[in-house]
Amino acid sequence: MQSMTNTDTRDIPATLAQITALAEAGADMVRVSCPDPESAQAVKTLVAESPVPLIADIHFDHRLALTALEGGIHCLRINPGNIGSDERVRSVVSAARERNVPIRIGVNAGSLEKHLLEKYREPCAPAMVESALHHIRILEGLNYPEIKISLKASDVGMTVQAYRLLAKQVDYPLHLGITEAGGLLPGSVKSAIGLGLLLVEGIGDTLRVSLSADPVEEIKVGFEILKALQLRSRGVNIIACPTCARQEFPVIDVVAQLEKRLAHIREPVTLSIIGCVVNGPGEAKETMVGVVGGAGENLIYRLGQTDGKAGDESLVEQVAQRVEEAAARLREKAEKE
Hints:
Blueprint (H helix, E strand, L loop, with lengths): L1 E3 L7 H14 L3 E5 L3 H13 L4 E4 L4 H9 L4 E3 L8 H14 L3 E6 L5 H7 L4 H17 L5 E6 L3 H12 L6 E3 L7 H17 L5 E2 L7 H14 L8 E4 L10 H11 L8 E5 L5 H5 L4 E4 L5 E5 L2 E6 L4 H22 L1
Parallel strand pairs: 1-2, 2-3, 3-4, 4-5, 5-6, 6-7, 7-8, 9-10, 10-11
Antiparallel strand pairs: 11-12, 12-13
Helix pairs in contact: 1-9, 2-3, 3-4, 5-6, 6-7, 7-8, 8-9, 10-12
């Protein structure tokens, strides 16, 4: 799970604060932009104090890559075909090899090479794959296999097609993403569709949900995608009904309160919030904690068994308490193992 800072990398305190917030939300790695020498020089301090591995995002200037490598960066995002002479490419690869640092080739439909746009007339999946293979061959020619690749477009279909085509031709790790997906709601939907299609096919090793929003939201949405596909579990998975005239308590409001109240939990606790008895008991028996609406006396379940009742006023707190207890049990079990 990956995200990217949107702070000025030269502002080390602000960048570290955002890296820490992303790590606390569940980011396994964080990318930082290095558009100038000062940003690349800041890498050394950022790496030393970051709680997670960092990736330096670099375009065109091989000197920035060398500075980031000297600073201890854990990965480079740079396209070898875009940094000039063979000598420059060899110098970057040599420094990366010395430190065993992988290089991520990042192809973006919005910045394809001129000759590919002339050949294909417009951005398309085959053009993206051809661009990726060009950069891959450069690194393979230098006997450097520590490669991962991304093929990103704002068009969901184009992105999915590109990854499918490349996955048939190479066996390198693939970093997934729908780039420039938009704001929180539309970007989440586009990412869920595109990344979900690929992940269920077994394509993809790392991912970023690219949103025009707080980067922490990218991590939250990413984990929701992975939880929905049962690929990774983190935090409370709330199963809640969409509500109807049968609801016996304000389901929408209760779910909103519980999402906020339980945001600190990292253990994979399952919680069902169902407004009436039609589907409620069945769902509650399948989750660690469950609630079934009951006209002012809502039934609470724990591990499939009834565990008391709660009025509307105390419902949120009683459910939260049981979820926290379930999380504590999971945490204790993990520590023993």
